[in-house]
Structure prediction request, 241 residues.
Amino acid sequence: MSLEARHLAIAYGDATAVWDASLEVADAEIVSVIGPNGAGKTTLINAIAGLLRWRQGELRFDGIDLATVAAHQICRHGIALVPEGRRLFGHMSVEENLDIGCYRSEARRARKASLDHVYERFPILRDRRRQIAGSLSGGQQQMLAIGRALMARPRLLLLDEPSLGLAPAVVDGMFEIIRTIHDEGVAILIVEQNVMKALSIADRAYVLEEGRIIASGSPAALLAESHIQQAYLGVSDGRES
Prediction:
């Protein structure tokens, strides 16, 4: 299994948000895309999820040209998205939200096994399965959003800013959950502003700035670059102005 993006250009009308972006996610990898707010991270991951169409370039999953796949069929190929802000149905119960994740026939047949797996991974969701989703805490809502995506039985999980709006202690637990999901055989592409957290679990990473991939490599290699240290970690280069 592999995701391959080649020279993607994505625009909103006449406004181009992503320019010439190329990246790969191999089987069993965690790949992070880091960058500042407004860099185009959400635009990029939404295009991979089928929510946006790209103007130029190629996007393939398992060798299949995703330009030929209807948006509502992307999930059938093994890709699931946990969107920024979670996008839950707040007036529906926890379990009703989870059921939405297995709407396609293949996933529906495995509903019980998937539900048991999600509840094993997130016991609090089992305890609150009848509770209205909008009444959950922020961390519990993020668990529910991830659980909903897992109900689709993905081979590639897309995570858009999973730490957004969460307390630091909750963020630590959330990234441990992401690591565990990966250990179970799911490839992960995560876009995230929390640079240290995103790099701490990644096999490889890309830096996206102003719609362009400006660097890529191992987390250690990226953290050694002076630009990354200055722009994202607040480390001075030691030169006086």
